[in-house]
Each structure stands twice: as C-alpha cells, then as structure tokens.
Amino acid sequence: MRILEAPLSFSALLTLVLLLAGPTLAANHNVAVGPGFTFSPADLTIAPSDTVTWTWVGGFHSVTSGAGCFADGLFGSGNISTAGSTFTSPMGTYATPGVYEYFCAVGTHCSAFNMKGTVTVATTPPPSVPAMETWALLATALLMAALTLRLRITGSRRPL
Ligand SMILES: [Cu+2]
C-alpha cells in the first residue's frame, strides 16, 4: 500500500519539472475602443507573439496601424460603430520587439482628437530555466523518486 504512493510523488515531481521548463504561453491583451476618442489603455506593453484584442465600447472608430495618423498597411479593422465588436491583431503582427503605433482612421479622430495608441513589444525575456538546468532538475526528480521508493520499501519491512 505504501509503495503505491511512490509513483504519485514521482508524478508530482515530474509535473513540477515540466512546469518549470515549459515554454511561456502567448497571452492576449485587451484594449477598449471608445467611448469618446480614446483607446484604453492607450499604451500597452506585451511580450513577443502576444496578441491584442480591441473591443468597441462606443463611437464610430477604427483600429488602423501606422504612425502620425497615416496607415502603414500592417493591419486595419475597418470603420466600426457597433458596440461589442472586436478586432484582434493578425497572427505574427507583434512577433518582433519594438514600438507599434496605431490610430483611428475615422474622419479627424486622429489629427484633431489625438485618437492614437501604441503597442510596445518588449525584448524577449530570458527563459526562467535554461535548458541545461532542465536536465539537472529531471535527474534530481528521478533520484528523489528512487530514494522515496527505496525508503518506503525499507520502511515497510521494518518491524514494529
Ligand atoms: Cu475614431
């Protein structure tokens, strides 16, 4: 009965190792479009390959890539007036670190009302666990599992 507990300990350790070594998952970030002539938050910092979803809260607006109120052709949602509508940055848009500017291309919303925003893609953070340490952790987990199993077998034979 006691021996059966050992594989559970091993599974727990292995799960821990895999969690520590696993790749960081891409996240999605939300920006509100309107009400008024606003993107909120107007300035957003994300990790490489994260995505951004804009949700229309109010008004007639667009989310159009480009600096200085000029479209650069990277992406554009088109003009939308329906509250609750969403637009997500196309796959690969934010793969490279840097500052990406966008604006509302409806009328003079950008030039007269400064309806602009930025998405800053931070430089790739170093992995939390380097590849070499992953193997060291796995070896430690296996050793601990083996020791746990051995102790439990030995323990069960010990007279009371
Ligand atoms: Cu607008």
Number of helices: 2
Kindly state the percentage of residues in helix. Answer: 25-40%
Under the CATH scheme, which class of the largest domain?
Mainly Beta
Main pleated-sheet profile: 4 strands, mixed
Strand % is: 15-25%
Please report the distance between the alpha carbons of the first and last residues: 16 Å
Which ranges are low-confidence, i.e. pLDDT below 50, for 5 or more consecutive residues?
none
Outline the structure in words.
It is built from 2 helices and 8 strands. It folds into 2 domains: 5-23 and 127-157, no CATH class; 28-121, Sandwich (Immunoglobulin-like), CATH 2.60.40. The chain is 28% helix and 22% strand. The chain has 160 residues and is of the alpha/beta class. The mean pLDDT is 83. The strands form 2 sheets. Strands 2-1-4-6 form a 4-stranded mixed beta sheet, with no helix packed on it. It has a 4-stranded mixed beta sheet with strand order 3-8-7-5, with no helix packed on it. A hairpin with a 5-residue loop joins strand 1 and strand 2 (39-40). Residues 37, 59, 61, 104, 106, 109, 115 line the site of copper (II) ion.
